[in-house]
Design a protein that fits this description.
Elements lengths: L10 H11 L4 E5 L2 E6 L5 E4 L8 H7 L5 E16 L5 E6 L9 H5 L11 E15 L12 E16 L16 E2 H8 L3 H13 L3 E7 L2 E6 L4
Parallel strand pairs: 3-4, 4-6
Antiparallel strand pairs: 1-2, 2-3, 4-5, 6-7, 8-10, 9-10
Helix pairs in contact: 4-5
Amino acid sequence: MNNIGTIKESSLHRHLKYRYAGPGNTEITRGNYVCDGQTDDGELIEVQTGSFGPLKEKISRLSEKEKIRVIHPIIVHKYIELYDTKGKLLRKRKSPQKGCAWDIFQALIHAPELPLNPGLTVELVFLDIIEKRKDDGKGTWRRKGVSIEDRIPVSWHESIILNKIADYLRFIPMKEETFSVKDLGEQAGINRALARKCLYVLNKIGVTELAGKQGNAYVYKKRRKR
């Protein structure tokens, strides 16, 4: 089965699963798949903290007959606590990185057509977390061997619900008829790499389309309803 194990489940994942489904409605089996939970109204719940790529087949199959909600946390503020192998706190700091709504396209870039599935709702949940790390030499080289032990939610900001394609128009804030990746990045306050991913996904789901070129830059426009 395509199950999500609970042995290495983070506090963040567990908190969201219980918040939306309740502790008595988790690990719901549907054929060869296991979802994180199900609401009293029958909506399936899937908590996905990373890329949506692994969900493509699962969502495609389940959303044909049932409603399913993918909960995706956006980390607004992250507080990092570093511990030694004996559990002693060595230091703590606030990460300079700050999440935003456009981060959803980091997750969708590997499953750009996922929002087209019927019965699917994507909910972005904005949270602050504590990330507990251990200096045990087992982590990645990027963190110099430091392992991530847990991610603990400490405060809740808001949520954004995307349950129809028109809801994704919120990610095109400009009033101009045509716009480039650079224009979107500047008006949304995001870097060009993320703006490029955003437009790639929005083109795939029919929110925007290529309008031509201005100089060396491709320009896009909102796609009219057909």
